[in-house]
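Students often ask why inverse folding is considered easier than folding. One informal answer: many sequences map to the same fold, so there is more than one right answer. In these notes we will look at a single instance of the problem. The structure comes first.
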């Protein structure tokens, strides 16, 4: 024992001599001189104490003393901070909003530009007529949208005025905040899946993501809230694979219900995400059936009042929204000039708008559904081709380089490069992760 202690003292004296020399004269050689796994002694002004900061420098290559490289150390701390991610993301969005918010105040078509159908439904709610009249005249109750965002906008209208400048400002600020806070679930689920380094870069990538900056402050819509909710759901799913607590699964189901009433399309992911978490519990030999049933029941309880409201209003079962038929015809009518031929529907077509008023919302949607299905049946080859074309458009941004199309979408060429690059990087990352 005495020999061991004496040997340790000698090693410490040697370490102090060489540590002082390397740290003050050749700091870049510290990592080479000492094994990173050994806690060595480095002399400082107070004597031979362990300088943990310089140990970290040897192990990680980061500056040992913030006073030596203050700016670099502070930037490093900012870069790793989730608070700064959110603040920077919010600041960027608010700056861009300053250039765009007046677009919401365009009085053309009775303020149609202000939240579009959401704005119309919100106005009807704020005026006490219930959720209805999604377009240009009073057409009665509607299931054009699910209720969360129209009621959210209606609340702002009630406080700050219908189609007012203050309402536009408040809604865009809230959407900017929602988009900025999306950095957090992205950071946390990237950290769980791929580690801290990837999490930091992922959070900052969203903070500076052009789509995440521009659209939340350019258009008042529920997409940005549903993006945040889906990101939170993905994060929770990753942790539910390790927990069979029923109350956690109930909360998970409630959040799914709120998300579905914000943007129903996300329900397409529900069976896969929920099923994956339940299957992981099954593989771990934990109870899975009761949590799964509890979460599913919670989801059903949340969405059922909206289904009851629709049945009461229309006399038939309408799950979530009734616009599937319209979207089916808009997307399948032979017109492929633009990826979204908006002149097919009642927004910009007087004949379609008249048919909407004459038939009523549900009957009009049924008619449009039949027209879309008839076209698909009579043109199956066209349907397969256009489906493939849309798949390419989603992942590359490419629809057409026709001169007339580019006159309407002049930013498509750089957008094609941007989206294609993102897809390639995604595929490279997936390959590397496997």
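Output (designed amino acids):
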């Amino acid at each position: 024992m005495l020999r061991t202690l004496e040997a340790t003292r000698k090693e410490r004296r040697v370490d102090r001599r060489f540590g002082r020399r390397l740290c003050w004269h050749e700091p870049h050689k510290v990592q080479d001189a000492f094994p990173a796994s050994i806690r060595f002694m480095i002399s400082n002004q107070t004597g031979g104490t362990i300088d943990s900061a310089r140990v970290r420098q040897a192990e990680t290559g980061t500056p040992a003393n913030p006073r030596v490289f203050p700016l670099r150390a502070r930037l490093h701390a900012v870069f790793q901070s989730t608070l700064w991610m959110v603040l920077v993301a919010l600041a960027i969005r608010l700056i861009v909003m300053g250039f765009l918010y007046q677009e919401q105040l365009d009085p053309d078509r009775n303020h149609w530009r202000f939240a579009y159908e959401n704005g119309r439904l919100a106005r009807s709610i704020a005026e006490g007529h219930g959720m209805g009249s999604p377009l240009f005249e009073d057409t009665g109750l509607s299931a054009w949208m699910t209720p969360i965002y129209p009621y959210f906008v209606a609340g702002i209208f009630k406080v700050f005025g219908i189609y007012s400048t203050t309402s536009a400002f408040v809604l865009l600020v809230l959407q900017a905040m929602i988009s900025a806070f999306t950095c957090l679930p992205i950071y946390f689920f990237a950290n769980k899946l791929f580690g801290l380094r990837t999490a930091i870069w992922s959070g900052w990538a969203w903070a500076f993501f052009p789509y995440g900056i521009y659209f939340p402050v350019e258009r008042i819509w529920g997409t940005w809230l549903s993006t945040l909710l889906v990101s939170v759901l993905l994060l929770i799913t990753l942790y539910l694979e390790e927990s069979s607590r029923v109350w956690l699964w109930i909360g998970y189901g409630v959040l799914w219900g709120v998300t579905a009433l914000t943007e129903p399309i996300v329900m397409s992911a529900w069976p896969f995400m929920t099923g994956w978490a339940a299957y992981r519990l099954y593989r771990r030999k934990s109870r899975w059936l009761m949590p799964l049933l509890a979460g599913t029941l919670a989801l059903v309880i949340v969405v059922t009042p909206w289904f009851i409201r629709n049945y009461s209003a229309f006399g038939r079962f309408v799950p979530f929204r009734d616009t599937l038929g319209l979207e089916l015809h808009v997307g399948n009518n032979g017109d492929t000039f633009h990826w979204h031929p908006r002149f097919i529907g009642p927004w910009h077509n007087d004949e379609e708008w008249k048919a909407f008023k004459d038939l009523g919302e549900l009957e009009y949607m049924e008619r449009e559904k039949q027209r879309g299905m008839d076209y698909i049946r009579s043109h199956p080859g066209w349907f397969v081709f256009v489906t493939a074309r849309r798949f390419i458009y989603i992942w590359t941004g490419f629809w057409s380089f026709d001169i007339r199309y580019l006159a309407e979408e002049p930013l498509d060429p750089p957008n094609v490069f941007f989206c294609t690059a993102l897809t390639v990087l995604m595929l490279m990352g997936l390959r590397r992760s496997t």
